[in-house]
Fold this sequence. Notes:
Blueprint: H1 7-16, H2 27-37, H3 40-47, H4 54-61, E1 66-67, E2 83-85, E3 88-90, E4 94-96, H5 111-122, E5 126-128, H6 136-142, E6 148-152, H7 158-171, E7 176-179, H8 189-194, H9 206-209, H10 212-218, H11 226-236, H12 246-251, E8 257-260, H13 265-273, E9 278-281, H14 295-306, E10 311-313, H15 320-328, E11 333-336, H16 338-370, H17 375-381, E12 384-385
Parallel strand pairs: 4-11, 5-6, 6-7, 7-8, 8-9, 9-10, 10-11
Antiparallel strand pairs: 1-12, 2-3
Helix pairs in contact: 2-16, 5-6, 5-16, 6-7, 13-14, 15-16, 15-17
Amino acid sequence: MPHYGDYQNLIYGRGLQGDLPKVPVDFTTLEAQAAAAMPKYLLDYVQGGCGDEATQRRNASAFADWGMMPRMMVDTRLRDLSVELFGMKLASPLFMAPIGMTGLATSDGHGDMAAARAAALSGVPLVASTLSNDPVEAVIAAAGATPSFFQLYTPKDDELAQSLVSRAEDAGAKAIVVTLDTWVTGWRPRDLNSGSFPQLRGHVLENYFSDPVFQARLGKPVEDNRQEATMLWASLFGKVLTWSDIGWLKSLTKLPVVLKGICHPDDARRAVDEGADGIYCSNHGGRQANGGIAAIDCLAGVVEAAGDVPVLFDSGVRSGSDVVKAVALGARMVGVGRPYFYGLVLGGDEGAAHVLNCILAEADLMMAVNGYPTIADVRREGAIRR
Length: 386
């Protein structure tokens, strides 16, 4: 399609033949249908936030506090949503944020592979999670020509960390995204009330179980005692990172290192000073700490502090208009999580690709109607707090 917005013409055209979308195009209906299709433990994990989930709710609702000023008499018949990141030209600013339970989104238990295929179908890059039901090598391969990144939960074992990063680099990942806020899990009542922590049941640990360093630490085949392997994972998960670790992290790879979880401008400045190649403004979707402010309200300050270092963003993104607002506030790339996960639940790789295409179509049409033919125009106009 010449423009992402043309996806609506495809939907309308199919509608003339009585072929309606099998996966909803709006988030509210999408979430409701996916919720009805998921087992409770998975629903609780994916939808649950920290504490009373006020920060999680605020992440999404705060986008309504920001608005775009339309500009008329601008020729937007041709639009360009492309962006540059780490020397790559990407077709749009959208990416698929890492989700630790993606493997269970599809009935075959290979949701990570389906997410990667959705990346290949849509051209939207995937940040593959350390927590996966398939090894990183297979996931990145399934994304084909669409660039992939690897999200690292840094283990306490430095040699294991090196192995995970090296495997991702060898597999073709374009950057390493280091999560900073999850060396311990936040207080999540939905999971606690059901006594369900999927990783302790052996789910989404294939990157560890397939790793030669992990296997050496275990000292026996994983299949001989998966419970023992799971307990070893639990004992190794969650290295506490400090600023002194940035040099070590960068020494693990030749790839750009992106620090995920930065919300304070002072932390963004310090990260740049310590050599971070990218800043990822995120509060983990409100899943790790309650009582914070919405991530979107942190974004402009982080962007200003980061200077020329690119800033990625996620938390609360539900629509194409959310993507455009985040770009207007300075994000180089904008991550979406739950929407594509719900697409996987309802329609596998094609369902997730449909959700991504819908988000891109809305973003493109918003730019067309508001008089912003390029991403540079969006950034120049900016977003206004209502």
